[in-house]
């Protein structure tokens, strides 16, 4: 069950990445084209100084494209932070987005301050004591290079804090800060401490990557393979810059005499040889850090994109095609692989593991077959043409790349398609969860417990949903634009708790006091979840049908919707409808009269037969069967008659919390009379409070 929970979590996080991923291909093309065709070495190699040189019109256009693409990639961590917070938050997503921006700034500002204090940054300049590539500019601040992983840390943390606190109620003295206003505050405070933690944790990771690089550089083909594995593995964390930069620019990448000068660094050696007319074949020892990337960036990943497209559901293929085609073109043309890699990294991590292995073999094979092609920006078709094809096959062996690339195209295609189908991986176009849980499309049985009486009265007092727009709130009041003033019912609005009402032509202000923000949040949820037909239908709200029986709350705690259960079997109501309680102690009593019809051997669940038509299952804890009864002192046995209030368990709640997935108690109706309806009450309750009524 925990594995399913983790997989579901990764899927939801993967879906949160789709919005920024959709814009990355365009940004990648802009950055790749702009960077390659404004590079002085490239311009000189093509003898196009008169067309692409500084001061020309095309040069200005290309610089513009380069800067537009660069700003998006430079701020990719922030973009992902906001996207994850948006995608993972349950309600009031705009508040989560704002909180993510605030938390991101706070975390990096904290790191920046600590780096200044320890001397890593002096007068706005990185000092010599810092590892090359370990500190970079983040939103105008020098901070640790954390890459997209920094944005993921912020997005996940903020979404958790948002879901936990966006409806918090505070004492009346500070009630102005309750609800959604509390979220940015708690996020800002929390990420001061996260920034301090990252300041201590992240640099050792960076140094470990750097030291490993020194070991790799002298290990032959095996070292090349490990180099490729580590470089691709570090891409999601932004640590690949720390990894490859020493090879590109320092003696780790080699030292050679070129045209009378001693040159160190793989990239420096390649470009020195590029301008040396006496070179007959570029150095394979230097270009082994580059050449293999052309194979999987131009050929391999487009093959993977084709496999994902063909595995997409028929109704999703059109939308999937536009995403994957642009991502594949970006990889092939510019060598920017994030758009396509991130499309499967989090929703299907197995594919990324396979991709890392295949990419590493490309490095080794290119080195073994004497391929020698470097690049300025990345291993895309532009650099392949400039530094491979145009330099001649004698110097570069570029034809070998084409032949190997065709092989790898089909290898990537075949392996990805096989794994997607075999393991049912939810790559783009295959995840149907949005359709399955689209409430507006699949609301077959409306849960009337979602009706908030105050929100219903406010809608009635405003003349119905169609009579008002631009609903908003300030510190103490709700504001709305009114279409027909004559439909306003001040009596109903005052009944909802309004202290005063201010009506103006086509506008209204309803004064509730400091709790106005919380009222607005609940009103938004009401209008999102409750069909409009229930706004004025009092009979439907009251549910005036014959009551069969009631279930009392069986433990002190908080009664919650069953849809929030961690176990998808209960959350999707596969065993029946019901309710969930988060207990505050371990004394659990019978919610009604009945007979114990079943006791699980592991003592974590029992069944109660109420009458011929009704049976309930009480399930204590999620993934608690593995405890084998430890922590559960069960005080009833099969066929025993119980009365409401009889003690069922005297459980060790602390032990269950620490060793199960959670301690929540699920009560579901495994058998119930046809046509019966459940009226549920949510919130904090004491034992014996009425929590559920069966009617009909």
TrEMBL record:
GO biological process, one term: phosphoenolpyruvate-dependent sugar phosphotransferase system
Keywords: Cell membrane, Kinase, Membrane, Phosphotransferase system, Sugar transport, Transferase, Transmembrane, Transmembrane helix, Transport
PTS EIIA type-1 domain: residues covered: 567-671
UniProt subcellular location: Cell membrane
TM segment ranges: 17-37, 44-65, 95-115, 135-161, 182-202, 289-309, 321-337, 343-365, 372-392, 398-420
Domain PTS EIIB type-1: 452-533
All residue ranges annotated as the PTS EIIC type-1 domain in the record: 4-432
Active-site positions on this chain: 474 (phosphocysteine intermediate)
Bilayer disposition of the protein: Multi-pass membrane protein
InterPro entries linked to this entry: Dup_hybrid_motif, Glu_permease_IIB, PTrfase_EIIB_Cys, PTS_EIIA_1_perm, PTS_EIIC, PTS_EIIC_1, PTS_Glucose_EIICBA, PTS_IIB_1
Name of a matching Pfam family: PTS_EIIA_1
Keyword Heme (UniProt): no
One GO CC annotation: plasma membrane
Molecular functions per Gene Ontology: kinase activity; protein-N(PI)-phosphohistidine-sugar phosphotransferase activity; protein-phosphocysteine-sugar phosphotransferase activity
PROSITE patterns assigned: PTS_EIIA_TYPE_1, PTS_EIIB_TYPE_1, PTS_EIIC_TYPE_1
Record-linked PANTHER family: CYTOCHROME C-TYPE SYNTHESIS PROTEIN AND PTS TRANSMEMBRANE COMPONENT, PTS SYSTEM, IIBC COMPONENT
Name of the featured protein: PTS glucose transporter subunit IIA
Source organism per UniProt: Holdemanella biformis
């Amino acid at each position: 069950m925990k594995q399913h929970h983790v997989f579901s979590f990764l899927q939801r996080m993967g879906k949160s990445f789709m919005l920024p991923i959709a814009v990355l291909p365009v940004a990648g093309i802009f950055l790749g084209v702009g960077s390659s065709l404004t590079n002085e070495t490239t311009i000189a190699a093509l003898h196009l100084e008169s067309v692409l040189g500084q001061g020309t019109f095309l040069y200005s256009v290309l610089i513009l494209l380069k800067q537009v693409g660069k700003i998006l990639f430079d701020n990719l961590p922030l973009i992902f932070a906001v996207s994850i917070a948006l995608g993972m938050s349950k309600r009031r997503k705009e508040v989560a987005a704002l909180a993510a921006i605030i938390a991101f700034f706070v975390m990096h500002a904290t790191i920046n301050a600590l780096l200044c204090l320890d001397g890593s940054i002096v007068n706005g300049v990185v000092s010599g004591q810092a590892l090359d590539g370990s500190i970079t500019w983040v939103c105008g601040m020098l901070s640790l290079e954390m890459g997209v992983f920094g944005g993921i840390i912020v997005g996940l943390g903020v979404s958790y804090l948002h879901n936990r606190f966006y409806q918090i109620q505070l004492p009346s003295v500070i009630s102005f800060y309750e609800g959604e206003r509390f979220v940015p505050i708690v996020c800002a405070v929390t990420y001061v401490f996260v920034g301090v933690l990252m300041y201590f944790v992240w640099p050792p990771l960076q140094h470990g990557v750097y030291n490993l690089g020194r070991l790799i550089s002298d290990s032959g083909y095996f070292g090349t393979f490990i180099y490729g594995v580590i470089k691709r593995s570090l891409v999601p964390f932004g640590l690949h810059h720390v990894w490859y930069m020493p090879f590109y620019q320092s003696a780790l990448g080699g030292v050679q005499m070129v045209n009378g000068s001693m040159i160190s660094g793989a990239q420096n050696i390649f470009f020195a040889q590029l301008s040396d007319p006496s070179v007959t074949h570029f150095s394979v020892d230097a270009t082994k850090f580059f050449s293999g990337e052309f194979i999987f960036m131009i050929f391999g990943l487009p093959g993977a994109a084709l496999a994902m497209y063909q595995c997409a559901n028929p109704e999703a293929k059109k939308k999937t095609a536009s995403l994957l085609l642009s991502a594949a073109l970006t990889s092939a043309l510019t060598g920017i692989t994030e758009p396509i890699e991130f499309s499967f990294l989090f929703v299907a991590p197995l594919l990324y593991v396979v991709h890392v292995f295949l990419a590493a073999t490309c490095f080794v094979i290119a080195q073994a077959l004497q391929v020698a092609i470097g690049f300025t920006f990345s291993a895309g078709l532009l650099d392949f043409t400039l530094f491979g094809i145009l330099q001649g096959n004698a110097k570069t062996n570029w034809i070998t790349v084409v032949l190997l690339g065709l092989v790898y195209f089909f290898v990537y295609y075949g392996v990805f398609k096989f794994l997607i189908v075999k393991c049912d991986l939810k790559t783009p176009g295959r995840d149907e969860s949005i359709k399955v849980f689209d409430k507006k499309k699949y609301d077959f049985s409306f849960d009337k417990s979602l009706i908030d009486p105050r929100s219903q009265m406010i809608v009635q007092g405003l003349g119905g949903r169609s009579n008002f727009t631009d609903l908003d709130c300030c510190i103490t009041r709700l504001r709305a634009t009114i279409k027909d003033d004559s439909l306003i019912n001040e009596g109903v609005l005052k009944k909802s708790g309004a202290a005063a009402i201010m009506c103006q032509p086509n506008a209204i202000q309803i004064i509730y006091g400091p709790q106005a923000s919380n009222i607005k949040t609940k009103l938004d949820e009401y209008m999102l979840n409750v069909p409009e037909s229930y706004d004025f239908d009092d009979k439907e709200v009251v549910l005036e049908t014959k009551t069969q029986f009631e279930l009392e709350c069986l433990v002190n705690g908080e009664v919650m919707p069953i849809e929030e259960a961690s176990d998808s079997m209960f959350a999707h109501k596969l065993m029946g409808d019901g309710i969930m309680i988060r207990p505050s102690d371990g004394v659990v009593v019978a919610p009604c009269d009945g007979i114990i019809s079943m006791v699980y051997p592991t003592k974590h669940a029992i069944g109660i037969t109420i009458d011929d038509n009704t049976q309930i299952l009480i399930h204590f804890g999620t993934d608690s069967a593995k405890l084998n009864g430890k922590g559960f002192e069960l005080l009833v046995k099969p066929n025993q008659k119980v009365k409401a209030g009889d003690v069922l368990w005297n459980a060790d709640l602390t032990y269950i919390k620490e060793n199960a997935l959670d301690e929540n108690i699920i009560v579901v109706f495994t058998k119930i009379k046809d046509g019966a309806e459940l009226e549920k009450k949510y919130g904090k309750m004491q034992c014996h409070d009425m929590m559920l009524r069966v009617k009909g």
